[in-house]
Structure formats: structure tokens, C-alpha cells
Specification:
Elements (H helix, E strand, L loop, with lengths): L4 E5 L3 H12 L3 E5 L8 H7 L3 E3 L2 H7 L2 E4 L11 H4 L3 E4 L12 H4 L5 H8 L4 E4 L6 H4 L13 E6 L2 H14 L2 E4 L30 H10 L7 H10 L11
Parallel strand pairs: 1-2, 1-4, 2-3, 4-5, 5-6, 7-8
Antiparallel strand pairs: 6-7
Protein name: NADPH-dependent F420 reductase
Keywords: Oxidoreductase
Organism: Streptomyces atrovirens
Amino acid sequence: MSTTTLGVIGTGMVGLGAARRAVDAGLSVVLSNSRGPETLADLVAELGERARAATPAEAASAGDLVIAAVPLAAHERLPRAELAGKTVIDPMNYAPNPDFEVPELDSDELTSSELVQRHLADARVVKALHNIGPKQLLELFRPAGAPDRTALPLSGDDPDARKEVADLLDVLGFDAVDLGALADSWRSEPNTPLYALPYVGQPPSGLTAKEFVAWVQQAPGVPAPVARVEELAAAAVRGPAGFRME
């Protein structure tokens, strides 16, 4: 594949999980966050020589592919100029709260990734790495052809960009299931059978939303092959958008 450097904007659990897997798979990563490169010194030292710290704009410029692992509420702060012409992986999920509600998402007029694509009009947005937890990402990778290889869904309006991201997932140790355009990315968003549970199994009963998130973050990974992901995507029924913590 042509990707040798992954730009990472945001070093929360998702961005850090993707960076760790990328470095372990032999890619270089350029890490960035909103607090400045100096805050990433310990992380870069831990990840080793394939990692370096930068500003979000520098990470966007340096990456062959860029993962925008920021809260959806912060998507308008992504560096539009530096991301122009890039394939941008969107792992963001809508989590409405009193401080961040988007009527177009609440009404299912748009998917969250269509909202991101509207902001990054000159980039090629691909929804991916949004329905699996970082712990499972770091546990479930397998070599190509392994009988227990896990598949991850992706969506995007540009077929070449979808292929780029599928190639990246392959390097990271996962098969890809192409769900088509961003308008269909809801099939793998929160409130669908393809969100989180295929990779962790059935949670204990009676969990609150916050307890569910905490459980997923610690649950052992469960392999989910291509056929299972395809089956769940096809069976999805669109409901209310967003993961609500209350």
C-alpha cells in the first residue's frame, strides 16, 4: 500500500489506539492534539522511533492518510486547508448533550460523517474505526487469511478513498466491509447491531449507558468475520441518531 505515514489528530483513547496499532504494524505516525506537541513527549518516547509529535496542521500535512480522532463537537476545528486533498478517516460518533445537539443529525437528515464531509469539503472523508473499541483494536488484529480475522466496516463517497482505507485496515490486521456512501454510514453507527457488540459479545444486563461504555473499554475482544459484519449491516434499521450517556 502507498500509506507509510499516518497522521493522527487527537490522542484520546481512539487516536492513541490507532497510533499504537499503526506503529506495531510498521507504519510511521505523526501525533497531534489541541494542547501542543510538547505534551506528547512521553507518548512519543513510548511508541519509539516511528512516532513523532506535531501540531494538528503539521500532522494533517505529513500524513498519507489522516485519522481525525477528535470529538464530533470539535470537528469544525480540524485544519481544513491542510486536509484538502487528503483521505481523512472519521472515527467520530454523535453523542448529543445539552451543549452539543445538531438538528440535522437528530432528524436523520445527515449522518455524522456527512456533517464532517461538509466541513472538510476538499478532503475525502471515510467513516472507519468508529465501532470498535481501542482495546479490541489492539487484540483482534490477525494476518491476512487467518480464519479468525475480524472485519471492520467503512463508508465514503469516494471509491478510491474507501480503497485506501481498506488497504490501511489490511495492514493493521483487519478485513474491510464496504458499506458504500457516507449516507449509508448509519448502518454501523451507535444504536445499530454493528456498533461495539460484535467485537465484545453480550454485556451484562442492567448496565447504564456509562457502565456499558466502561464495560466495552475493558471487555476482551471477540472476532467478527466478514460474513457477520455484512449480515449485521444488512439487518440494521435506522433509528434515533447518536449515543446518549443519560
